Amino acid sequence: MNYNIAVVRGDGIGPEVIEQALLVLQKVGKKFGHTFQCQDVLAGGAAIDATGMALPQETIDVCKASDAVLLGAVGGPKWDNLPGDQRPEQALLGLRKELGLFANLRPAILFEDLIDACPLKPELVEGGLDIVVVRELTGGIYFGDRGLKDGPMGKTAYDIEEYSEEEVRRIAKVAFEMAMKRNKHVTSVDKANVLETSRLWRRVVAEVAADYPQVTLNHMYVDNAAMQLVRAPRQFDVMVTSNLFGDILSDEASMVAGSIGMLPSASLAKGNFGMYEPAHGSAPDLAGQDKANPMATILSVAMMLRYTFGLLKEARAVEKAVEKVLHNGYRTPDLYQPPDSNPLATAMSMISLPIAGAFGTQTLIGTKQAGKLVSAEI
Ligand code: IPM
Ligand code: MG
């Protein structure tokens, strides 16, 4: 089969992590007999430099004509002083809207081998963690009316949050469908004690739940959810929430999973079309130093294989390859912990317990080596 992919390398570490993900994709093609035809398009800072616009029409057109989009990351200090509506991030928001990508899936999986990279107490995450945040992506405060006006207390800015029943219904369905394939538990996160949008959200989610009697639904206020994620993360399976709350909670969930450098994401439209990108940003401070973790982008490719192309075996092969590389002790700098910097290891050695093997031996690797190692395991 031939698949067409629009590729936005983007800014900062974007091009580096995409390069490694494409290496992995090519290996999948070779091994399983597919061709992945990739077409580079510009968006974000790189597009501003080349065309004066963060999201050129040509990029939208090519993305729409493709089967899927793979994106690195956009933004950087170079473009920080541009007015809000011209910033590189607008490209991301524009793509989400133009391509109808209303459902954002952000899995936070703590791999067994990364338990020591998780900042939570080991007993809270024993046996690993597997949460997926389902974030509404084309509505809410991100896309409501916004502006600046004069008020009695000086300039007054506003951003309006709106949600329609249909917007809530379609994202809730995605969450429940997802839960049916997992542990059949949905936590809907809102602020229904204060916000009208949340009250509508809660009502519609409960209506959708009626169609999924096998799935347990609970509602949780967002402040409590933020606390519960670090207090007892294993209580979560699928979390469904609004655009803004999902932005915040998915970053928190990613840290629980060891590093945001491990967190992939899928943004799905109706049908099979999707845009796939790491959940991390462009990290300009790491760019060009072979220090970025490409795993989030590589795992995003696995999501593309699964959700847009329906290539489940291939997706699993990529995920297994990532697990293998981690299991073999290879770590990019975001995950690397030399044994003597690990307080638990130090404490254990001080009371002279055997520590060999307790944390394994870690080998520090760069971006390029990580991509090569994963490809070699496929
Ligand atoms: C994300 C990012 C974006 C968002 C920014 C860059 C606009 O934080 O994808 O989570 O807020 O959605
Ligand atoms: Mg974010």
What strand order characterises the main sheet? 2-1-3-12-11-4-5-10-8-9
CATH architecture descriptor of one domain: 3-Layer(aba) Sandwich
The class by helix and strand makeup works out as: alpha/beta
Span from first to last CA? 19 Å
Give the C-level CATH assignment of one domain.
Alpha Beta
Low-confidence stretches: 351-358
> What bound compounds does this protein have?
3-isopropylmalic acid, magnesium ion
Radius of gyration: 21 Å
Helix content: 25-40%
Write the layout of secondary structure elements.
Elements lengths: L1 E9 L3 H19 L2 E6 L4 H7 L5 H9 L2 E6 L15 H10 L4 E8 L11 H4 L3 E8 L9 E6 L2 E6 L5 H16 L4 E6 L5 H14 L6 E6 H10 L6 E4 L1 H14 L7 E5 L5 E5 L16 H13 L4 H16 L2 E2 L11 H8 L12 E2 L2 H11 L1
The protein binds 3-isopropylmalic acid (IPM) and magnesium ion.
The site of magnesium ion (MG) has 2 residues, from helix 9.
Concise description?
By secondary structure, the chain is α/β, with parallel strands linked by helices.
Structure write-up:
The structure is a single chain. Helix content is 40%, strand content 21%. With 378 residues, it is an alpha/beta fold. The protein has a domain at 119-256: Isopropylmalate Dehydrogenase, CATH 3.40.718. It has a 10-stranded mixed β-sheet with strand order 2-1-3-12-11-4-5-10-8-9, sandwiched between helices. It has a two-stranded antiparallel ribbon with strand order 6-7. The site of magnesium ion (MG) has 2 residues, from α9.
